[in-house]
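Fig. S4 source data, part A: sequence.
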Amino acid sequence: MEAPGQIVDLLEIAHSTLTADVLPLLKDESRYRGLMVSNAMCIVARHVNAAFRPTAPLPLLGDVAIAGGIRAGQFDGGSPMRSALVANLRNRLVQELSIDNPRMLETLQNSERTS
């Protein structure tokens, strides 16, 4: 299997070729479909990079632990664990947006800075 860097490099070359050489030749619906493929290639490259990061910035609770804690009332208002849950969910959102929609993450982070 290829190293993650090589996979990402191949995806970037294919993306660059698609956007520079192929998409300008397409019209209407075909161009739209080409743009969707182009975006998908970028998302896959970010997923590959994320999969091979040494560690996540912060340990995150899994879905089962969160659901179980909610059912048990561990995160109810006034609970000292509530702030940990909010931080955990926020970190999960940041990690997922950094892969799936980095522009939205940047928009959200910029709006927080100006608030």
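Fig. S4 source data, part B ends here. The chain has a mean pLDDT of 87.
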